[in-house]
Amino acid sequence: MPMYRYICKNCGTEKVELHGINENPEIICDACGNEMEKAIGRVGIVFKGSGFYITDSRKTTTTSSKNTSNK
Known about the structure:
Strand content: 15-25%
CATH architecture of one domain: Single Sheet
Low-confidence stretches: none
Structural class: mainly beta
Shape: elongated
Number of helices: 0
Mean pLDDT: 78
Largest sheet: 3 strands, antiparallel
CATH topology of one domain: Rubrerythrin, domain 2
Number of strands: 3
Order of helices and strands: EEE
C-alpha cells in the first residue's frame, strides 16, 4: 500500500496515511478537526550513470599534430 501525505487546510499540520490507490478516504486533522487535503510528496532524485556532469556534455578538443617545420 502506498503512503500519502496530507496537509490540513486550516492549521497546516502534516500527516502520513497508508491506503490503496483507488481509495479516497476523508482524513481529519488531529489538531483542529478540519479536513485534510492530499499533498504532492517530496521525491528525492538520484542521477546514476554517465551524462549527468557538465564535463560529460562538452566536446573534446583534439589537437592535431601538423608538421609545421620552418626550414
